[in-house]
Amino acid sequence: MGLLDRLKSNKNNKDFFEWLDLLLKNDLRSEINAIIFNLYEDTDNKWSME
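Above: the chain sequence. Below: its structure as tokens.
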């Protein structure tokens, strides 16, 4: 299982991935240049994002 799959399987991230999937399925407004979020390795070899 890859990192993205592990993040998606975490129920705490469900809202984030639903939002991201919806956003990426549609065209972004022309004034949006980037979507940025912070992905980092947390304690006990777990991954978190902001």
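Residues 27 and 36 are 17 Å apart (CA to CA).
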